[in-house]
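Box S1 | Example of a co-folding query
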Amino acid sequence: MTFRPIHQIVQTRAVTEGAGVSVRRAIGTPELGQLDPFLMLDHFGSDDPDQYIAGFPEHPHRGFVTLTYMLDGHMEHRDSMGNRGDLVAGGAQWMKAASGVLHSEMPRQTDGLMRGFQLWINLPAAEKMSDPAYQEFGPAVVPEVVGAGARARVLAGEYGGARGIVDDPNTALLYLDATLAPGAAFEAPVPASHAAFAYVFEGAATVEGRAAPGHALVVFGAGDRVRIVAGDAGARLILVAGRPLGEPVARYGPFVMNTREEIEQALADYRDGRLVRARASVSGG
Ligand code: MN
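Box S1 (continued) | Returned holo structure for manganese (II) ion
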């Protein structure tokens, strides 16, 4: 058993997305274009509704999966599959855009708060042009594992005997939201084959004696287990891991394919109103 050290710390970069929404981007920047199979990680949140009220009006996606996890507030969602959702705090939305989805995401605050994460997970070539799919989960169905000084909500993968709500077989995704008491240690097995990172969004922590600063991406090095120790004020973080796809990536905005030609095709399809190919596979409403 080898604890994974910190391989790299990537500071987040403030970017403006959608209709003027400010987000902290941790993956998908000049510093870290991707962390195969992860294409992007955005941490959004503000106490000021003016910073996000216009939200993310209708826009396309093709070739990948988004996993959105809401910490505070909620997010109204509509898409070309016919889904209308309202993702609430503690809940998660999994959307496989695959061949093409048009959707809108409109964040709303609750009690003055709105916070969350959106992770883009790549799809293998064989699934990029498959039919889209959508799943939304409320907070009550997310299992929580309580240990000494730490509790973890299991969004994807297996942890402490609990199975997460989201299953991403292409990457064997692990996605935990861990809350640590001051000085508490949190451990999780993470397969050696997986790319793994943590993002501390409350408090501060250390990994193998090295500081894991807040609001930065902590990329783990080789090993098969992760141990994170909270600072004096405790810590809350996401721990995410996935098996790399090892395929070429060609991307342009919300289109992520394997070749330049496929990107040109996506742009042409979007321009010509042919991005959404699949019949509505409506699940939920
Ligand atoms: Mn989107």
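Residues 56, 59, 61, 103, 105 surround manganese (II) ion (CB under 6 Å). The first strand starts at residue 6 and ends at 11.
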